[in-house]
Design brief:
368 residues; alpha/beta; 4-stranded parallel β-sheet
């Protein structure tokens, strides 16, 4: 496509993607969520993803900040993945034991008011006598039907050898696959300070990426430098551009299951449907780093490009987790932004002054 209009290329045919992917000038990058999500998949799905990464022949590289976020969040994600299985198992148990007639409440009624309304008590007793055996049979069948699910959960627990204090096959694989040369250098404190200022300005102007991350909270320190989670995507993006510019790499595949409007071009008039990378990102990538093809793929799209047929269960696992994570982030971001907007409205009334700039800031967070 003509270099003046590269950013307007919204669609790549699968054969074209495969050709670019296998080009020795193509860079393959996985987002942090791809590595962290490995802890939440069943073992078979996790291993399918690990095997696919292990056999990659292209230029496999990672921005430093991807692995910084991975190591920072790894233990919490492992803890939650194990806790989720326990909660599912407990919920199933509560569901089975809770689905029965509340006989005690009826008995209370009979002891308190039965002598005043004997005809009602007799009618209620007939219903109890009629339905108690049915409910007992229902509960028996329910317990029987739930048992295979609980057994499968126990199998998942036994199969999963990831440990917070011991062996971690995901971490072991990543260490073996990515040498120090395969991971970019961290930015200096001075460069980070410049990027933080630049990112804040872009957020207010809704310039991608990262304007959808403004509601993220969480500061942390790495080797004496303070980071803020809301700058994470922008740091990763800039590290990609800097590396490609230095190495003269024209093609970039960025694989991520985090589908957001500040990375992907939304399909007009279609909610939650997206093309590839946003036009602003493709234009900037070309102008700053001479990247001709900035291609964003989710995990299932990545497997199609590889030509690997996943099992139906694996496809379902990947889609379910992606959908869950994205919906969860939407709810969290919307709730935080709405609470902040309500607080600002109260503050505006107290001070009797305009808050147009602050309202614009909140609108960015909500995605208006």
């Amino acid at each position: 496509m003509n270099k003046f209009f590269l950013e307007y290329k919204d669609y790549y045919h699968l054969d074209e993607l495969k050709k670019i992917f296998n080009d020795n000038k193509s860079l393959i990058i996985f987002d942090t969520n791809i590595f962290l999500d490995l802890y939440s998949y069943p073992v078979e799905t996790r291993q399918s993803i690990i095997n696919s990464i292990d056999q990659l022949k292209g230029i496999l590289w990672s921005p430093h900040h991807v692995f910084l976020e991975y190591h920072k969040n790894r233990r919490e994600v492992i803890h939650k993945s194990k806790k989720n299985l326990d909660e599912i198992q407990n919920t199933l148990g509560s569901f089975a034991s809770g689905n029965c007639l509340n006989i005690s409440s009826i008995s209370t009624y009979k002891s308190k008011y039965g002598k005043f309304h004997s005809e009602l008590t007799d009618s209620i007793q007939k219903i109890i006598d009629q339905y108690t055996p049915l409910y007992a049979e229902l509960q028996k069948q329910l317990t029987k039907d739930i048992e295979p699910i609980r057994s499968k959960i126990n199998i998942y627990k036994k199969q999963d050898t990831v440990s917070l204090t011991g062996d971690d096959p995901v971490l072991n694989f990543l260490i073996s696959k990515y040498s120090d040369d395969d991971i970019g250098e961290p930015y200096s404190p001075e460069r980070l300070a410049e990027l933080f200022v630049e990112c804040d300005a872009r957020i207010l102007k809704k310039i991608p990426p990262a304007f959808k991350d403004n509601s993220k909270s969480g500061k942390f320190t790495y080797r004496g430098i303070e980071y803020d989670s809301k700058y994470g995507d922008f740091i990763i993006y800039k590290q990609i551009l800097d590396y490609c510019s230095a190495k003269k790499i024209p093609n970039v595949f960025f694989i991520s299951n985090d589908v957001k409007r500040d990375w992907r071009e939304p399909v007009p008039h279609e909610n939650d449907k997206y093309y590839g990378a946003r036009r602003e990102l493709k234009a900037e990538a070309y102008l700053e780093a001479n990247i001709e093809n900035l291609i964003l793929l989710d995990l299932n799209e990545y497997f199609k490009v590889l030509g690997i047929a996943l099992s139906p269960d694996a496809v379902q696992d990947i889609e379910a987790l992606k959908r869950f994570n994205n919906e969860k982030k939407k709810l969290i971001n919307h709730k935080k932004a709405q609470e902040l907007k309500e607080s600002l409205e109260i503050l505006d009334k107290l001070k009797d002054g305009p808050i147009d700039i602050l309202n614009d800031f909140i609108d960015v967070v909500l995605g208006f």
